[in-house]
Design goal:
The protein is built from 5 helices and 15 strands. It has about 220 residues and is α+β, with helices and mostly antiparallel strands.
């Protein structure tokens, strides 16, 4: 994480993969300590009290959700719960990472929400568009992206996209459908990825792929 001040504990904190450091407001400059992960993990089984000031404070900070009303109005609750607080992006927009996508809007109009095109940035599978090769129209809709070139989109995916804001929200396809594993097929779009599980109950066959944590890790948020 970035260094951040914990007002409740009166300390500056920073978290790494294996440890957390803190500096008390009352400490002299240049002083650092380790947060007491061991005591926190041992919990009630421990007889040892954490060093004063080093306690892990397991308090949930409410997450602001400035985009929530707009997303609900667009039937986009499927984008998932927020993984971060809203923050100012490099382009000056208000941005937030959700479980399945990254949303942003102008600072003063969060209702004008859009999705970041994160799929290529995260290295998802892509393929070159092709001419319409007489794909079975009962199974696929051909979506043109460059003149006569485009991608076949399974109707199960296209109907899902249409029900949740349309191609304006998903962005154009960037891959053909492909088998992800023994139980799932996927297709990647500019702003998110969809997964199809034929064996799942019908209302759960199509789901968004959880890309938010990958973006969060890549951006070090």
């Amino acid at each position: 994480s970035q260094p951040r001040h914990n007002d409740a504990a009166g300390r500056l904190e920073q978290y790494f993969e294996n440890v957390g450091f803190y500096h008390l407001d009352s400490d002299p400059p240049g002083t650092a300590h380790l947060l007491s992960y061991g005591v926190y993990s041992c919990d009630m089984s421990c007889r040892y009290q954490a060093r004063l000031g080093s306690e892990i404070i397991a308090k949930t900070i409410p997450t602001e959700q400035p985009f929530l009303d707009a997303l609900r109005g667009m039937n986009l609750a499927v984008l998932g719960s927020p993984l971060t607080q809203p923050y100012i992006a490099d382009d000056g927009s208000l941005e937030q990472v959700l479980e399945n996508a990254v949303v942003y809007a102008p600072l003063d109009t969060p209702q004008d929400v859009r999705l970041r095109p994160i799929s290529r940035q995260l290295g998802l599978i892509t393929s070159e568009p092709t001419p319409n090769q007489a794909f079975d129209p009962n199974t696929y809709l051909f979506v043109a992206v460059n003149g006569e070139l485009g991608y076949p989109v399974p109707w199960v995916f296209y109907n899902y996209i249409t029900a949740h804001g349309g191609l304006e929200i998903s962005g154009p396809p960037i891959s053909v459908p492909y088998r992800h594993d023994a139980e799932h097929y996927r297709q990647n779009f500019e702003n998110y990825s969809l997964e199809f599980a034929p064996a799942a109950p019908q209302d759960l066959q199509v789901q968004m792929v959880a890309l938010g944590s990958d973006y969060q890790n890549q951006a070090d948020l």
